[in-house]
Fold each of these.
Amino acid sequence: MNRYFYYSILMCMLVNTIIYVPNILFAHRHNSALTGMLLSVVIGSCLAVIFSKAMMNKQGQGLPELLTQHLPLWIKGVVLIYLGFMWFAAGSIVLIVYSIILKRFIIEDINLEVLIILLMSVVVWSASKPTKTILYLLEIVMVINVPLVSIILFKALSSKYMNWYGIWNIASDNVMKLPNLDVVAAATYLFTGYINQAIFNREFDGRFCPKHLWAIPFLGLTILSTTFFIPIGFHGTEGVGHFVYPWVSTADSLRMEFGFVERVVYLFLLLYLSLTLIFVTVTWHVGYRLIESISQKQFPIRSWSLKPIVVFGSFMLITIFLAYFLNEKQHLILGTYWLRLRFWSELGLVLYVYYLSRKGKTT
């Protein structure tokens, strides 16, 4: 069962390339990107290890059960609603961004809101399934996609068009500069997959004991480096800042002469369609389970069976509202603010959960 813990982390690491993490890193490429990335590897890895150790002390229990033991009901309800919508926001941002990418590069004639509704229908259907089903689906997607994504990365690194001098120029120019908060908040998002253990831990009754935690900083540094340096190698130190979706443009620069699809961008978008759907499925499932854990007395609905409709319906309506009324620049600004809020919220949640786990262990 421990492999699902790493699947969740790896899923979040891979999906970062299509959201606004690369944009934020490239915006600070001349001042603090590298030091911020190195600091984020340390912070993200430490938070992942601390949270996993805390959940190991609470085998078979999720975050709602842990909060029930230590918080009043009304505070627990407020915290779970806030965290549930934070998880929802994570999936919603990815869903909107990928829908825009699909419309721009693949199916230009479709209405954006219609495309989002179609994708959300698939997500809601799968996210409402039992947690065990979500974990099995996550494993299938990761086993299929990780080797193919690795081939794309290898193809990029071995390309004759890779400008290693530009990469060295950026790396050497950033060594002695202080990290920026936006860079740290964005780069630590790669490690956030471990936080799904807040619900997944319920399924790991007595069997959650992850080994080889040293692999988390290694994987994080590797993927973060490729996310940042490969587009710079293809588009140059200045040109990379002119792309709204730098990784899609980078994939479109690659060719597979002997592949069944010559243009890598189509394979890239197909892979990230499945990664996007499983990422949004997992985040919306976790968000739903957190809100579902509020007791019936705290939830202002007479019929408790309507709760999935209310929760997922709210998720869908807010997502459509954001897609319809905000443009791409506003989405980037909103995503940057959300990454900051997520960073501090995640930091506080991890430290508090670790405190509660130690408190329960000593008493």
Amino acid sequence: MRFSTILASTLAVAVSAAPTFPQLNLKEVLNPDDTLSSLSEYFNLLATRVQLAKVQSKPPTCDVTQARMPQAPVPLPSPPEGHKVKHVAVGRGTQNYTCEADNKDAKPEAAGALAHLYDASCIAAVYPDLLERIPAMALRFNLSDEAQLGASPLSPTGIHYFSGPKTAYFKLADGKGHDQGEVYCAKEDASDAPLTAAVGQKDEKAVPWLLLKTHEPTTGKIQEVYRVSTAGGSPPTTCEGMPETFEVEYASVYWFWEGDGEIAEEDDGADD
């Protein structure tokens, strides 16, 4: 199938799905104009890419190893020489936090995350500018129990949560549900999201970009996981008015890099 046909189908499904499945959230957001702007930018760029693909002499090559990962304003350390991109996924879910009871001046503490993952490897390889707009778009739609990423029909490719207090876990699968391995990792480095990063539904700042290093019992050859292109997810600065546990919706792009060499022993490092 030509790539232009795939993109055209994506646009058609997105447009028809946007009003009803999943629901667009305009009632609870603080800035509806920002929501409409994010959606407009995404759909306009998607339509442009569809038209461009139609006039190309041959379809673009969907080779994820050739994809170029974006850099934060203060760059994170690069993957070691010889490591290659194995998989790219959009994550959509919540960052979770706790607050001390009766201490309004305390700062919320990170308590893990929960997100569904959607396969964006081909988009990363061919249309990276479109990929960077997907988290902002996806965050404007309500979370759904159905396997749907906002107005995008990207295929489900796994789930992300914490298997321990400070161990980020990724269960990866292909678009057909076939097991693609398990990834256990801990934070190695972090960088603030760009000032232009998309805010959340209630104007929450974007969570930092991260470099996560894998450790045992990871299966396969994944060595690094990068969380980039984040949207929303940050907690308020203090616990004033907050419950003891709460969630903040976020979206991001996760880049999985593989390389030869032994996986490190478990090191229960910092939070995701």
Amino acid sequence: MYAEFHTAILAIELATQKGWKFLWIECDSTMVVDTFNESINPPWKLWNRWLLCKNLLSSMRFKISHIYRKGNSSADKLANYGILTRTFTWWDSIPIFIKEDYYRNELGLPNYRFRQF
């Protein structure tokens, strides 16, 4: 949970730097969602960052919700990209490797995963 919670905090800090006033985070970790909904405490190593983050959230309309990993293939592919590159990356347009998934989601089309035996 530490890594996922840290990533959510980074996203909020980046949104603040960009001047965004509306932010909706979908997360596949129910523990992170519960932490932001103040049902459980954050990891103690991130307690100070969490307090600063709550202050940042007070100036924006914020929503966090749970989504199953298979329900958001774009986020899953972006997370896998992040694991492989291990560097901060920012795109001003949709990366080519998630365009198909993004547009399927935008159109409300289902997403299937197949496994060969």
